[in-house]
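Two proteins were folded this term; both appear here.
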Amino acid sequence: MPGMDGGLLAAIPAILLAAAAVLFTAPALDSALRRDDGERLFWVGFTGLLTAVLAVAWAGLAGTGAAAVTGLGLLAGSAGAWIWLRRRQRARKLARAEKAHSKQLNSLEQRRESVLREWSSYELDPWKGVDYPGLGDVREKATSRLARAARDALAAKEEAQFRPLDAAALGAYAAAVDHLEEAWEAARLAARRRAG
């Protein structure tokens, strides 16, 4: 047993090298994954692997028990690093999806608001109302469809906001905004025809 203790003490530099291999390789791999840099990912992984093999070989010179301890330490550290990298990668993927969803949601909201602002300008400006009569009268068939499309777009917006990252809800909102824009053009055309 005294030889084993001496072997482990002699292997401390190798154990430190193994720890450094894991501690420095994991963040470098994370950086390569974040940048989607396949070449860097390969070389960082390859360098980390060579460093780990060197650490086990170095520890093996001190004794087989030291090599086993170093190898087990590397396995445990590598498993922990892998779990950490997977969590980071999932978090990045989720953040990208949330950002894309938010961007689409904002774009659809701007389109919806644009139609509503333009429609309200016809109700607030009497001269526009003369050129396009009936845009404020929901008894007109086209204006009634426009009001219904505006309500549907609002309901679809609330559903898409309530269910973040739900592609179906976002698709329904996009379809409702498309329908609102079509209803707006149809209502304007009908009002223009009524004006003569």
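Next, the second protein.
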Amino acid sequence: MEYTEALKTIGQLVQKGRLELTLAQQPFAKQAEVDLKTLRSLEKGERAPWDTTQNKVEKALGWRQGVIREVLDHHEIIPAESITMDYMRDGGGEASWADLSAEEEDNTRPVTRAGLLTNEELIGELAYRLRHKNRGIAGAFLP
């Protein structure tokens, strides 16, 4: 599959996912916290969005984390017909954003793919790790 075909396929699936949520472009863009022009460009398959935008769209649609980047990076080996809504949500057994949210609530496992986090999420993760690191060090010196 060509790169432009992969972009168009992703755009069509973003639009389909948005319509499944019964949202027009503007409310969806607001919910996903992305610019409306960026969403329109993504749905038309005109250009690939930045990683943070991809993450926000994936999360809003309930897709697996990093699936847009996966499709774009491996467009040459992924058959076009295999890129479906099911693939975007469940394919490959990767963790979805819902899985990550459950982990976040659990707080038992740290996030392992920092490149998929927004700046705010990354800062929160670093703050969490620093707090727990300091507790561990202080706890080691207690009698």
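The helical segments are 3-20, 25-32, 36-44, 51-61, 67-73, 85-90, 97-106, 119-140. The two ends are 63 Å apart (CA to CA). These notes refer to the second protein only.
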